[in-house]
Structures are given as structure tokens and as C-alpha cells.
Design brief:
With 287 residues, this protein is an all-alpha fold.
Length: 287
């Protein structure tokens, strides 16, 4: 990779690590599903000029948007809101690549190779180690929601193979346009006090929301997709392990999160498995 592109990739991963912290600040004051709807409402407005009508592929676009957008982000922000620490969440969401590998076996009929079996065992085994941490057991169900969010993303990634010719901003715009009303309706049914929470939200909460829109969604996803069109996944994947490390360390530094030995060992196993499964050929593109 060119030096400038390496620097860009590092900045993207740092931005995503900070994105988790920023969302955590906002979620302390704004209900998670309503926060997700606000985020995607803003993203939809930004991407709207690039959105085009695709009648022949509208069904698959809807499925991508629902799984990779509404389900993925709705479950992720729910899990992040109720989890006690950032690090386990930041590590668990990295299961998106192992889940995508499993779906490639089940749906596409790809043959499992020995290194992939080892990688999957490491990745999921690491999360199991984290889940059995006495501290994490207290918020196990939010961690499971994050794992489900990773599976939802993997499902959307499988479907994205049918839309590789669409402009990145076009597809991201559709994802936002579908996620905004879908998660907004879920918030209306399942949550209360949305308007009061936003009216009383602190400046920090609003800054966090704005950052997740521009730092996480616009800069992060647009920059990564730009690089993916220029480099192989094997060249990009190692950098993507930086964001959970940044997010976890920021949680320890600014939120007083605790890193136990189980979190460290489990995190190393999971990230090692993710690295192994994503640096081999014929793997689905990340995110």
C-alpha cells in the first residue's frame, strides 16, 4: 500500500474506535433505537443526492438495508448501550467476518479449508472466553445482541455481492433510507421518553451523535470502500483489528472500564482468528 493510503487506513480505524466511545456517550442519554434512527436520518439526508431508483433489484436492496442496516446497527447500539464495558463489544462485533465465512459455506457451497476451521474456532472461542468473565456475565445478553448484530451484517454482506456495480453512496443511501423508518418504528413501539431525552440531552451527547454520522458513517465507511476498490482484503484486514483496540483503550481511559485477563486473552484469540480468516484469498470483503 502507498504510504498515504496506509495513513488513511489508520485514521479510519482510529475514527471507528472513537466512534464506539462517542456512541457510548450519546447512548447514556438517548434511547438506543431512537439514537440509531436519528443517526440514519442524518445519513440519509447526506446521501440522498446519490440515491437512484433500481426497480429490478429493489428487493435485494431492501434485504441488504434491513439486515446490514436496521438489524445490524439496531442490535449493535442496543448491545453497546447496555454493556458495562466497551472492549467486549468492540471485539464481539469483529465476528462479522467469521460469520460471513460460515454463510459462504452454507449458502454459496464453498468448501471449508483447514485454516478456516482453525480461524473460526479461535474467533468464537475467544468470545466464549470473554463471555465467561465474571464481569461480562453481568451483561451477557447485550454481548449476545452484538454477536447477533455481527451475523446480521454478514447476511447483508452476502447479499451485497449482487450489487457490486452500484455506487457506494447510492447503496449507503438506500441503507439509511430503510434503516431510519424501520428502527424509528421499533423505537416508537419498544421505547419511551425519546423526545424528552433529546430535549434534555447534553452537548456531549449531541457531539457524540454528530461524530457517529460524520466520523463513523461518512468518513469511515466512504474511506474504507474507496480503499477496498484499490487493494485486496488481505492488505486491508490487518489494519481493521486496530479499531477494537482503540475503542477498548479509550473506554478504560475515559469511562473507567476494566480490562480483565479473560478479556485480554479472549480478545487476542478472537482478533487472531479474524486476522487468519480475512487474510486468506476468496473471502468476502469487509464491512
Amino acid at each position: 500500500m502507498a504510504l498515504g493510503h496506509v495513513v488513511l487506513m489508520v485514521f479510519i480505524q482510529v475514527a471507528w474506535g472513537v466512534n464506539i466511545l462517542a456512541a457510548k456517550f450519546s447512548l447514556a442519554e438517548i434511547p438506543p433505537l431512537f439514537f440509531t434512527a436519528l443517526r440514519f436520518g442524518a445519513v440519509a439526508l447526506i446521501y440522498l443526492p446519490w440515491v437512484q431508483w433500481h426497480p429490478r433489484r429493489f428487493k435485494v436492496i431492501l434485504l441488504i438495508a434491513f439486515s446490514g442496516g436496521a438489524l445490524h446497527f439496531g442490535l449493535f447500539f442496543l448491545g453497546l448501550a447496555y454493556a458495562g464495558d466497551i472492549a467486549p463489544v468492540a471485539i464481539a462485533i469483529q465476528l462479522n467476518a467469521p460469520f460471513a465465512t460460515i454463510l459462504s459455506f452454507l449458502v454459496l457451497g464453498e468448501r471449508a479449508r483447514p485454516h478456516q476451521i482453525v480461524a473460526l474456532a479461535l474467533a468464537f472461542g475467544g468470545v466464549m472466553v470473554i463471555a465467561y468473565d465474571p464481569r461480562v456475565v453481568e451483561y451477557l445478553w447485550p454481548l449476545l445482541l452484538v454477536c447477533a448484530a455481527a451475523l446480521a451484517w454478514a447476511t447483508g454482506a452476502m447479499l451485497m455481492r449482487r450489487t457490486t456495480d452500484l455506487h457506494v453512496f447510492d447503496l449507503q443511501g438506500w441503507i439509511a433510507l430503510v434503516t431510519f423508518p424501520a428502527v424509528g418504528l421499533a423505537s416508537f413501539v419498544l421505547e419511551t421518553g425519546q423526545l424528552e431525552s433529546t430535549a434534555n440531552a447534553s452537548t456531549l451527547a449531541w457531539v457524540g451523535l454528530v461524530y457517529t454520522v460524520f466520523g463513523g458513517a461518512i468518513f469511515g465507511h466512504a474511506g474504507l470502500n474507496w480503499l477496498i476498490h484499490r487493494y485486496q482484503v488481505a492488505q486491508i484486514a490487518p489494519f481493521m483489528l486496530l479499531s477494537p483496540v482503540v475503542g477498548g483503550l479509550l473506554g478504560v481511559w475515559l469511562l473507567g472500564d476494566v480490562l480483565t485477563w479473560r478479556m485480554v486473552v479472549g480478545g487476542a484469540l478472537t482478533l487472531g482468528g479474524v486476522l487468519l480468516v480475512t487474510t486468506r484469498p476468496r473471502h468476502i470483503r469487509l464491512r
